Amino acid sequence: MAYNNLIINSEANITTITINRPKKLNALNQDTIKELHDAFKVADADKSTKVIIVTGSGEKAFIAGADISEFADYSVEEGTHLAANGQQILFDFVENLSTPVIAAINGFALGGGLELAMACHFRVASNTAKMGLPEVSLGVIPGYGGTQRLTQLVGKGRALEMIMTAGMIDANKALSFGLVNHVVPQEALLELCETLAGKIKKNSSVAIRAAITAVNANFKTGVNGYQTEITAFGNCFGTKDFEEGTTAFLEKRKAEFPGE
Prior knowledge:
By secondary structure, the chain is of the alpha/beta class. Helix content is about 45%, strand content about 15%. It has 10 helices and 10 strands. The strands form 2 sheets. A 6-stranded mixed sheet has the order 1-2-3-5-7-10, sandwiched between helices. A 4-stranded mixed sheet has the order 4-6-8-9. Strand 2, helix 1 and strand 3 (about 50-55) form a beta-alpha-beta unit. The longest helix has 20 residues, at about 75-95. The protein is globular and about 60 Å long.
């Protein structure tokens, strides 16, 4: 599939999706959101892809926010649809993807950029990265899940401070907040993400999919995460991956998971 705003590379069971709008600092417009949805959907359906890495082109920006020119004159109804549609086709979609997604934050991750990074299963940042939700400086609030996911990751007080001040934090502060898992020099960013992906892809993709579902259940209203875990745990016993994993352990060899 051809993309106007993305570069896709698949190698060694890892698909890397790079947002490529350097003149706009990789800002999210509606075309890019749609392309990202399609790219994640294709990668998730590809059985050879065990891990997805998403990053931005260049060294300045992961995604420096949304393309404000697209919605500056929207009505209340149009703004509501913008947020609802974006959350459905990209941000919620990524969070609930069965293939693990790592955000490689290579620069500015602002507004919708930070919201996409937070929708990923975890985040790695370069030491030059800056993160923030500056929406209130434009008279609006984060609309792609930012108020919810930031609070889940860093706590209510820190989330409200970041949102209300519209300020940016650097990578080390993001690390201390628990917003990112690792901080490395820019030149080591993709290398570390690929190393982490290499560790992930050795394990059962079926079990990883179940773990994502169980962890996400903790944040869903009206869903009993413990019961979700129990059910998912039990279902694992009926998979070929479980049979292979336990057999390999007893035979003292490395498992070769079929992903079934």
